[in-house]
């Protein structure tokens, strides 16, 4: 439980040190970070590293607890603990370097994918930005959360190279080759010398990121995007059985999205109330919803890249492989598919950074919790995960609204549980379903790749054996002994 008196004192101390312009207590701003179960007491907005160090010192001296976020301007990063002070780095938003020849960038934590893309396009640089679906997400937060996008550079943790963080005591640390003065390879060689520590600062409360390097994809000479629809619920298994070898052999190199019809309906702005009946939709209704949009029960989005003479060869292989799936339709021209969906989906795989047609949460509310299990790119396992998740959602009154992104050998799933932000009962119901999903998935062998701040304790329990939680606790105590940064 956070001590409210200490939080108030910490916020006052920060304001005294940085000035009123760096602190915001307005209800409208606090609501941007709030959930029905947690609301911050204030937001601190440092403009640079010097102000960040002052804010940390003032908060620590007053016994405050901070929750760092990279860019909360668009409401994408929520409060995990009630009465926490949000430390929002959105004003630290400089694109520090874009290197076209070596294909990398270095950014401050407040930079969004939209801003990075605009910077690159303004200089006519032929590099693609991979983003995880929302262009207003922070580039640094994507590394911190280990998000995944849709191009061949979809693995944002792998593509991150070079990091600077500020520890709880205000000291700056550069990782990898950046630890060496005059280094020429900070954004080129990930590991530096000695133990590689960048991963300690992803999905953790050990420090605050201040600079993040990321590799960018050179625009390829040729590419071909496509989608595959499968009409029946049980078609997921054969679809992924075909996809698995294509991913393993890097024939389809992008982050391949596989979504169900309700996910795509939500992307197009449709709502649960647009469909007949009460409670979770039956498989036949989901199938009908997909058919009405020119889609299947399952919808896969892939792309091929390479030389102009090579892409057609790959296409013949891929077209034939997916065409062998029962009930599958391979689409390369967008015919019969809503142009908004086709344009956005194809753009995500070819460096076009744009907002989706509609936010998923509006399917049945205005915000959503996500549950994020990982499975092999394997039909049997993916179907087993889907069925237990579908049934658990139904038990709690939720539709199964899901997307998976196949990266290398695994598929990262996002299962959406919409709720109404002003309704605590709605939010509590979503949280209960999320907790049940996490527990059921862990029991079946499927762990989480990411979780909402308020659900971390539930996920932590599923990783309790093997000493990992003990190791994390020891690192936390060493780097942040007073628990300045919130753990929720």
Give an overview of the whole structure.
The longest helix is centred in the last third of the chain and has 20 residues. The strands form four sheets. The chain has an eight-stranded antiparallel beta sheet with strand order 15-12-14-13-17-18-16-19, sandwiched between helices. Helix 1 runs antiparallel to helix 3 and helix 7 crosses helix 12. It has three domains: 127 residues, Uridine Diphospho-n-acetylenolpyruvylglucosamine Reductase, domain 2 (2-Layer Sandwich), CATH 3.30.43; 124 residues, Uridine Diphospho-n-acetylenolpyruvylglucosamine Reductase, domain 3 (2-Layer Sandwich), CATH 3.30.465.10; 229 residues, Vanillyl-alcohol Oxidase, Chain A, domain 3, CATH 3.40.462.10. The model has no long low-confidence stretch (mean pLDDT 95). It has 15 helices and 19 strands. It is α+β, with helices and mostly antiparallel strands and 488 residues long. 34% of the residues lie in helices and 20% in strands.
Features:
Uridine Diphospho-n-acetylenolpyruvylglucosamine Reductase, domain 2, 488 residues, Uridine Diphospho-n-acetylenolpyruvylglucosamine Reductase, domain 3, 20% strand, 3 domains, 34% helix, 8-stranded antiparallel sheet, alpha+beta, 19 strands, Vanillyl-alcohol Oxidase, Chain A, domain 3, 5-stranded antiparallel sheet
């Amino acid at each position: 439980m956070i001590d409210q008196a200490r939080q108030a004192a910490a916020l006052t101390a920060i304001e005294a040190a940085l000035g009123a312009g760096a602190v915001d207590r307005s209800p409208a701003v606090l609501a941007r970070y709030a959930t029905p179960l947690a609301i911050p007491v204030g937001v601190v907005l440092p403009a640079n590293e010097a102000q960040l160090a002052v804010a940390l010192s003032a908060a620590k001296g007053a016994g405050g607890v901070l929750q760092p976020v990279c860019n909360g301007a668009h409401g994408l990063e929520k409060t995990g603990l009630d009465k926490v002070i949000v430390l929002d780095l959105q004003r630290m938003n400089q694109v520090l370097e874009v290197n076209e020849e070596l294909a990398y960038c270095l950014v401050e934590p407040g930079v969004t994918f939209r801003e990075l893309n605009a910077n690159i396009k303004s200089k006519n640089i032929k590099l693609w930005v991979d983003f995880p679906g929302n262009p207003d997400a922070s580039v640094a937060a994507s590394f911190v959360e280990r998000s995944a996008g849709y191009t061949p550079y979809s693995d944002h943790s792998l593509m991150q190279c070079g990091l600077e963080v500020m520890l709880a005591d205000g000291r700056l640390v550069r990782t990898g080759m950046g630890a060496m003065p005059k280094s020429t390879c900070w954004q080129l060689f990930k590991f530096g010398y000695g133990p590689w520590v960048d991963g300690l600062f992803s999905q953790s409360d050990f420090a605050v990121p201040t600079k993040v390097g990321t590799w960018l994809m050179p625009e390829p000479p040729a590419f071909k995007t496509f989608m595959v629809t499968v009409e029946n619920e049980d078609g997921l298994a054969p679809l992924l059985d075909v996809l698995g070898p294509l991913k393993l052999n890097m024939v389809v190199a992008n982050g391949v999205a596989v979504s169900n019809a309700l996910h795509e309906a939500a992307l197009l702005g449709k709502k649960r109330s647009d469909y007949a009946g009460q409670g979770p939709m039956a498989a036949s209704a989901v199938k009908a919803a997909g058919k009405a949009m020119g889609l299947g029960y399952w919808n896969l989005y892939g792309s091929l890249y390479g030389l102009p003479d090579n892409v057609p060869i790959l296409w013949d292989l891929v077209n034939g492989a997916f065409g062998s799936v029962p009930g599958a339709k391979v689409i390369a021209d967008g015919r019969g598919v809503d142009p908004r969906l086709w344009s956005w989906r194809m753009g995500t795989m070819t460096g076009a950074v744009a907002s989706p047609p509609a936010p998923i949460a509006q399917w049945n509310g205005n915000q959503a919790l996500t549950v994020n299990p990982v499975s092999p790119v394997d039909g049997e396992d993916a179907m087993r995960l889907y069925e237990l998740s579908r049934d658990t959602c139904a038990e709690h009154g939720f539709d199964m609204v899901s997307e998976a992104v196949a990266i290398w050998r695994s598929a990262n799933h996002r299962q959406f549980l919409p709720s109404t932000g002003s309704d605590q009962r709605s939010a509590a119901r979503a949280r209960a379903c999320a907790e049940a999903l996490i527990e059921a998935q862990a029991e079946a062998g499927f762990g989480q790749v990411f979780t909402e701040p308020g659900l971390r304790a539930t996920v932590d329990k599923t990783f309790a054996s093997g000493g990992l939680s003990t190791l994390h606790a020891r690192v936390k105590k060493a780097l942040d002994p007073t628990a300045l940064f919130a753990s929720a």
